[in-house]
Design a protein that fits this description.
Elements: H1 2-23, E1 24-27, E2 31-37, E3 40-41, E4 49-52, E5 58-64, E6 68-78, E7 84-95, H2 98-103, H3 108-126, H4 129-134, H5 136-151, E8 156-167, H6 170-212, H7 214-229, H8 242-254
Antiparallel strand pairs: 1-4, 2-3, 2-5, 6-7, 7-8
Length: 276
Amino acid sequence: MVEELLTAGAAVAAAGFVYVVSAARVVKQYERGVVLRLGRLRESVRQPGFTMVVPGVDRLHKVNMQIVTMPVPAQDGITRDNVTVRVDAVIYFKVIDAADAVIKVEDYRFAVSQMAQTSLRSIIGKSDLDDLLSNREKLNQGLELMIDSPALGWGVQIDRVEIKDVSLPETMKRSMARQAEADRERRARVINADAELQASKKLAQAAHEMADEPAALQLRLLQTVVAVAAEKNSTLVLPFPVELLRFLEKAQQAQPPSPAPPAPSAKPIPKRPTAA
């Protein structure tokens, strides 16, 4: 009798151990457990830690609550200004309601991926090429709103959407390179012309100052000679300004004319005697 009781107790203990092992579950800190009992959702969501389920009756679905980084495949599209581009992006999202993520959508990751691709194509068709290249922050916000609206019904919250790269055709790249080069050349010419204008105004002012003071012109000439003679040259080119010639000419005209020498007196020519 005692042996039978011991055998029955050991069997019960073994069955209990097997039951506990089969029913025991561990939910990690970044997970939440959704229990379906006979196909029906249990209201309580299992929190992190050790939990028990009924073997063969309950089914535990673990849902990751971390932020998920999902790349969006590159999408080909035509912009509003008829330019063919290829755009790829990255999306960051997380589950905020584990029960909705299990019950209301079959695979929330796949659903978010498909919605992101569709929204990205729509954004490409509504935007100009310049917006895709320079105004990405506004496009990222619009793309986030387009994906977040249906995702909230699945228990998913879109944290951030970023457009990574915009690929252009080679012909468009060459056209943009020529446009940029022409724009840089135009700005260089405008800057050069502006510099010439400012320099001409300064030279005109200097010319007026030198016209009032002739000695300034001589000093400028001496400075030029010193600058040229500073280098090791065997030949010295000395500029001679035209204004200096005019100054000398005016000085010569200002001098009084010298008196002319007296003309020699004419002597009478003697007549030769004629032969008889």
